[in-house]
From TrEMBL:
<keyword id="KW-0560">Oxidoreductase</keyword>
<dbReference type="InterPro" id="IPR029045">
    <property type="entry name" value="ClpP/crotonase-like_dom_sf"/>
</dbReference>
<dbReference type="InterPro" id="IPR011548">
    <property type="entry name" value="HIBADH"/>
</dbReference>
<feature type="domain" description="3-hydroxyisobutyrate dehydrogenase-like NAD-binding">
    <location>
        <begin position="503"/>
        <end position="628"/>
    </location>
</feature>
<keyword id="KW-0101">Branched-chain amino acid catabolism</keyword>
<dbReference type="GO" id="GO:0003857">
    <property type="term" value="F:(3S)-3-hydroxyacyl-CoA dehydrogenase (NAD+) activity"/>
</dbReference>
<dbReference type="GO" id="GO:0008442">
    <property type="term" value="F:3-hydroxyisobutyrate dehydrogenase activity"/>
</dbReference>
<dbReference type="InterPro" id="IPR029154">
    <property type="entry name" value="HIBADH-like_NADP-bd"/>
</dbReference>
<protein>
    <recommendedName>
        <fullName>3-hydroxyisobutyrate dehydrogenase</fullName>
        <ecNumber>1.1.1.31</ecNumber>
    </recommendedName>
</protein>
<dbReference type="InterPro" id="IPR002204">
    <property type="entry name" value="3-OH-isobutyrate_DH-rel_CS"/>
</dbReference>
<dbReference type="InterPro" id="IPR013328">
    <property type="entry name" value="6PGD_dom2"/>
</dbReference>
<feature type="domain" description="6-phosphogluconate dehydrogenase NADP-binding">
    <location>
        <begin position="349"/>
        <end position="500"/>
    </location>
</feature>
<dbReference type="GO" id="GO:0050661">
    <property type="term" value="F:NADP binding"/>
</dbReference>
<dbReference type="GO" id="GO:0006574">
    <property type="term" value="P:L-valine catabolic process"/>
</dbReference>
<dbReference type="GO" id="GO:0051287">
    <property type="term" value="F:NAD binding"/>
</dbReference>
<dbReference type="InterPro" id="IPR036291">
    <property type="entry name" value="NAD(P)-bd_dom_sf"/>
</dbReference>
<keyword id="KW-0520">NAD</keyword>
Amino acid sequence: MSDTHIRTEGHAGRITLTRPKALNALSYAMCLDVERALDRWREDDSVHLILLDAEGDKAFCAGGDIAEMYRSGIAGDYDYGRNFWRDEYRLNAKLAEYPKPVVSFLNGFTMGGGVGLGGHVSHRIVGDRSRISMPETAIGFVPDVGGTFRLAQAPGRLGEYLGLTAYRMNASDAIHAGFADTYIPEDAWPALKENLVHTGLVAQVEAATQPVPDSPLAARQAQIDDLFGGETLRDVLNALRNDPSEFAAETLKTMERVSPLSMALTLEMIHRLRGPSLTIRKALELEYRVSYRVMEHGDFLEGIRAAIIDKDNTPNWRHAPDGVTASDVSKMLRPLGPDTLDFKEKAMQIAFIGLGNMGAPMAANLAKAGHSVTGFDVAGTTADGVTNATSAPEAVKGAEVVITMLPNGDILRGVATEIIPHMEKGAVLLDCSTVDVDSARAVASQASYAGLMALDAPVSGGIGGASGGTLTFMVGGPDDAFAIAKPLFDIMGQKAVHCGASGNGQAAKICNNMILGVTMIATCEAFSLADKLGLSREAMFDVVSTSSGYSWSMNAYCPAPGVGPTSPADNGYNPGFAADLMLKDLRLSQQAAETADADTPLGQAATELYRTFVEDEDGKGRDFSAMLPRFEKRHRG
């Protein structure tokens, strides 16, 4: 017998969870049933809205059904859980992005998987018995099903507090924290449901809305912000230990019972996600990195054993509260490459022009994700899973999106002139090259005149980012084109920032790389000076990487071999990002500065130093961080 009652009534598609004895815990089969119903109703004109509710008074949905995950995981089979989470997260995104109104009635407990089901929809109703929480850290997991999306948007530091303590929000708390929209007394719910079914008008929800009671969570907002403002778990724990209040003591006591690794991961995830580029898909993709690894490398199975199976409530966590390192967190949050969460419902027809060191792995990642990719490169290079065309015009025929990755603006202009007449009206021309702003804007204008949409989206992340699907895209162009390309950015990279009008993507890239060029030179100069002053490189790194001299050039891409994370310096300065390319980008920055009449003396100096290094010395073909051995050999004067 199904655990969901799915039917059409009046103008509404209705989904009712029917496992009240299990607090309507969400099983794998229930997820798939709900998704199939949503797919069916999407194109059904007789269905005006979706109504989500549950049988019983105790719970809308108290979480996911984790018993089978434990049984399979303890036997060493992690695929069941990974597949469940993958499909559940796709459902969560579908609910959040559904084109028709979805109204959820969050009665009783709504926890974990229940938040994923009813907490991202367009209209979320709570009543006096509603209790909403993300309790995952208590079982060695992290807030998932898009929970980090909600936590990252909560006011102040409530997200950190809710994610680490599993605090149960009442109706007013949930509205204050962004987990619900509307308070309606529960005795008014039956009549509201009837009206929604009969009329198909979601305005009925607003008509029934009542003033929200005062929120206890809001009243404690300032204290929570002070206590949970730290960057790491240790910072938060120390703040709680040093606060004399009863609230701090009780909160610390709660946190000492849950998984330290899970708390540290939750903090890092919220911090990474918080900001204007946050989307539900970005949050779910980050969560899936943990889901994919948590049974094998985290505390999840031990947490379930202690809380659900043996019920001894004495879990043997992998770490002490103060023992979780940055490396422990980083390992769990590394990108998954080919196993990255994929939300794609249908394959897109994509053309990819320019299959070089960057373009080939980008095109291959799109093909691996299930898209139909046709490629062309004048050098005859190919990419895994990509169909080869004999010419650029042949490649772009019928393509919904045409992606270019080319060496410079002149070549981009030439290719655009060649392919635009053969592209379908309404298609998107997505240029990922790093070129001058004028060329980007000229091509965008040419595409617009031909009835196309254009985006300039230069990338940061190098060959490794292209292969691993972790690039950052800086995007200029119209909103509609960005929306079409966004799922492709999510496959090829980990972040895409819409910077505004056409050409602004290139502007962001050259400004970013001018900073990078200048800071790398300064970093190399400082290491050379430290050598000559008798200061060890290790001591130099330890001080600067945690002090005001902190920079990406020092902390993530250290130019000194054997110091800090592995970088091209540890591989003989074989390029991750070649000095030749840095020189190209710096020249573009100075070309733009001249056009804009901007004074950039450090950018000019960096350009000249890299010109000398590449054209007059031995820098050509070496990594841009090879400036360090250059400075080692030189003396003042």
